[in-house]
Design goal:
single chain, mainly alpha, two-stranded antiparallel ribbon, two-stranded parallel sheet, about 65% helix, elongated
């Protein structure tokens, strides 16, 4: 009985160890890249005379059959094969026999997984980049409808100066354009082929790494085998790029949550992207922006996780790097769906322009214009003008008016320094005039906003 129990325990421990050691249940995501890399490798081996043409054709045909089996759902993934590389190779050998055993000549799983994973990251950098361009286009299109609509510009979440709503939206267009450029830069920096580095020191076989690189769409081979098999900078980069992008998504989500609240009522989201309370039928909750905001923390965790895995690894390959993939897969899926959903939220939101413009009459948004007027027209030092403006704001508060609503007599009565001020000051304090006065390059005037929209339209057309 004791021997039987020991055997059961050994079997249980073996099963647990298999599950702990294996990566097949998540790295099967790389099947297409693995097969693509293996086909290119077999073609190169044939060119170098290491495989016969007949062997190469058999290998390529078998690999394409494996691909079809995986995509049709016929392929059975098993822990017995540990990872996607062994699973594909084993099935290939079952299909074509002896030639399948020759495929692994002049490579290691170390450079194979580095190639597969890099191909995946490169593919996803391209697809996320395309999504970001669509998102920028949406922000630019919506911004174009509101280049004269006033909205309070805020600092510290306090009313500061009047903006137009199109200008506010273009701030996010700029953020997502930078995200696009980060993915583009990372793609170019990481577009080098690991295959042929073998375990860590290259191979004695007469291979042609330039040929393999070209077939797989890389610029050229990586130049140092040991660095190559242990390098996961490319994975860290896409995690950082995704984290930064999600941070921008979280920022606009936070504003959408605020803007759709009863206190603001600036926008109303489509019913597809908001839900009612389970017990309070009058409520409409901004669930989708809240989820977008929450998922940002999730991708941050994936970045920190891989940074922590990599921080103490000696050269060269270590099994620790098996922990590199799940976080990347998760972050990629998260950012893909997040960009797609945000795009639709922005397209379908309803803007309450009256609420936005009325909100600009709270907080004395054109106060700075009074100070600027005194500097420009009265030749006052700015600091003197600043304190006089404070007196006018105090007067407006006493009269329970916004500074933009004061008459010339009310302005003059606020300070002895203003008793002879020109009536022109009333125009300067007008909110729309205040917004359009900021006509410096990059400013919020309708003219500058239209100019920025043209800039983005030209960028989007490239």
């Amino acid at each position: 009985m004791a021997n039987q129990n020991n055997q059961i325990l050994k079997n249980t421990n073996a099963q647990i160890l298999d599950e702990f050691n294996a990566s097949i249940m998540f790295d099967k995501e790389l099947y297409a890249q693995d097969i693509k890399g293996s086909i290119a490798h077999s073609q190169m081996l044939c060119e170098q005379g290491i495989l016969t043409l007949e062997e190469q054709k058999s290998i390529e045909s078998g690999l394409l059959q494996v691909k079809n089996e995986i995509e049709s759902g016929e392929f059975k993934f098993s822990l017995a094969y540990e990872d996607i590389h062994m699973a594909v190779e084993n099935r290939l050998t079952e299909i074509i026999g002896e030639p399948g055993k020759r495929l692994h000549t002049a490579r290691s799983r170390n450079d194979q997984v580095a190639t597969d994973f890099r191909l995946y990251v490169q593919d996803k950098s391209v697809s996320v980049k395309a999504q970001l361009k669509e998102l920028v286009e949406t922000f630019v299109t919506v911004a174009g409808k509101y280049t004269t609509t006033l909205i309070p510009g805020m600092t510290h979440l306090q009313h500061a100066q009047p903006l137009n709503f199109g200008y506010h939206l273009l701030a996010y267009a700029n953020m997502f354009k930078r995200d696009f450029e980060r993915f583009e830069s990372s793609y170019e920096r990481n577009n080098y082929c690991p295959l042929g580095s073998a375990a860590l020191a290259g191979t004695p076989h007469n291979i042609n790494r330039d040929s393999t690189s070209q077939k797989l769409g890389f610029i050229s081979p990586t130049i140092h085998a040991m660095d190559t098999v242990s390098d996961r900078d490319f994975a860290l980069e896409i995690l950082f790029n995704i984290s930064t992008c999600m941070m921008h998504i979280s920022r606009i989500s936070e504003e959408l949550i605020l803007w759709s609240s009863y206190e603001f009522q600036f926008v109303r989201m489509s019913d597809e992207y908001a839900t009612t309370s389970s017990i309070m039928p009058q409520k409409k909750n901004p669930d989708v922006p809240e989820l977008l905001r929450g998922k940002t923390g999730r991708v941050y965790g994936n970045l920190i996780s891989l940074l922590t895995v990599m921080k103490g690894l000696p050269l060269a390959y270590n099994k620790d790097t098996q922990e590199d993939k799940e976080g990347v897969f998760d972050s990629v899926k998260t950012v893909e769906i997040s960009i797609s959903i945000l795009n639709e939220v922005i397209k379908t939101m309803i803007v309450n322009t009256d609420k936005m413009e009325n909100a600009c009459k709270i907080g004395h948004l054109s106060a700075t214009d009074l100070a600027d007027f005194l500097v420009q027209k009265q030749n006052m030092p700015f600091r003197t003008a600043y304190y006089i403006t404070k007196d006018v704001v105090t007067k407006a508060n006493e009269l329970k008016k916004d500074i933009s609503e004061l008459t010339i007599d009310e302005i003059r009565s606020a300070s002895s320094e203003l008793k002879d001020v020109s009536e022109e000051i009333v125009m300067y304090l007008d909110l729309r005039n205040s917004m359009n006065a900021r006509n410096s390059f990059g400013g919020t005037s309708s003219m500058q906003t239209e100019s920025q929209i043209k800039y983005f339209e030209e960028w989007l057309s490239k």
